[in-house]
Amino acid sequence: MNLTANMTSSPVSSASGGHRFFQPARFFQPDVQILEVAVAAFVFVAIHSLRQQKHQGLPVWPVLGMLPSLVVGLRTDMYEWISGVLCRRNGTFVFRGPWFTNLNCVVTSDPRNLEHLLKTKFSNFPKGEYFRDTVRDLLGDGIFSADDDTWQRQRKTASIEFHSAKFRQLTTESLLELVHARLLPVLENSLNQSLPIDLQDVLLRLTFDNVCMIAFGVDPGCLRPGLPEIPFAKAFEDATQATLLRFVTPTLLWKAMRGMDVGFERTLKRSIKRVDEFAEEVIRTRRKELALLQSGEKKQRSDLLTIFMGLRDENGVGFSEKFLRDICVNFILAGRDTSSVALSWFFWLLDRNPAVEERILAEICGIIGEREGERERSPVFRPEEVKKMEYLQAALSEALRLYPSVPVDHKEVVEDDVFPDGTVLKKGTKIIYAIYAMGRMEGIWGKDCREYRPERWLREGRFMSESAYRFTAFNGGPRLCLGKDFAYYQMKFAAASILYRFHVKVAENHPVEPKLALTMYMKHGLKVKLLRRDEGELQKYLSIK
pTM for the complete prediction? Predict the structure, then answer.
């Protein structure tokens, strides 16, 4: 009897009642064995890797790194996902992307680290080539993405204009006209027809018209009765969303998608075409007006685009059309999206916190009550009155703390460095500072950090600003937002004008969540119903302290 044969061909009963035999070992397929070994090795490495990386708060998979967790975050709420990880990791963690990709980065929300990269070692943390390459199709070489001399020249020119008396006068006059001649009539029409209205859309129209008027000297007329569809607005939002998706997609992949014109790259290409058409039309219009100015047919006016058009380098050469286009797009992003989305979250928070709304109304009514003579039924707030609205500024700041208009931002390491918290930074490392997450850190704001509580901004009843490295909604250091004061004035003037006249009630069961984009749009807009305030109701707020 052949022992080997017996050992390798023992019978096993089959379902049919007969017998089937194991195949002799010499007939095993080698590729099957190799596959089994590979799978076993992969499982072993995966389990070992997960155990080793458990302290990071995120599983690190072989080959894929932390990408699976990021995908889960993208499918739910990426900003909350980042916040959760940072809270578990005391404010900083290292994100490991898939092998052979450039998604590795350090993510932080530690104020010490932010002061280090935004001020103390500012020159060692530029936006960087990766950031510029990712946003170049949309933002070009504008002030948001530029570094070094290109950034400094734009910053200096804009700073001079922002601090001029002419500019301040233009901003107050244009805002007054937009709010009283356009915004309030549109809201009144919605009330009269008993129709809900998308307040985010209305506010985006307001700030878009405003930034075009003061920055480019043109009036696009987006905010008018009937709220006509504005192709540019949709294109701009789609472009910012698609651009952000590049940051969470390996560069080789999104560049391949761009080459094949598929997916979000296809959307981006078409959206940018519309953005370019708008910017080019703005520049053409302004050039025609400048020609009329030179012929004496029109009066000189001050706006950012005109200033940049008049600049010359040492050789007497002005900015190219492409660079002027970049300036337009960057200032639209800065002036249109930030204030409008902040106001949208502010009104949503007020709907959920009626006591805060009552205090704001008491403050507004008290300021109106200080006027000499009979109080107007439809007052126009004066600049000095807007300045007095300190609780309103606290309420707006609290909304920005919880829902910053720019939820995350990016830097790159020029030379090896170490963060104050001990995190080692190698040359070329990408840094993501999570502004949204900072508002949810107990170590920064206390155990009530997720509560909407404007009082945290008040000291003896007066508004007190926080360090730019704890409250980074307006950035900090040399890149501190030039339009910060204007943004507060714009938001306070618009909010006070609306609240004095209307109750703003969010539509029942309206879904509210952030949209994944460069700025924190509400994904589904903000559907609200407006109710008129009567004189008796306003009078009662005078007694509220």
Answer: 0.85
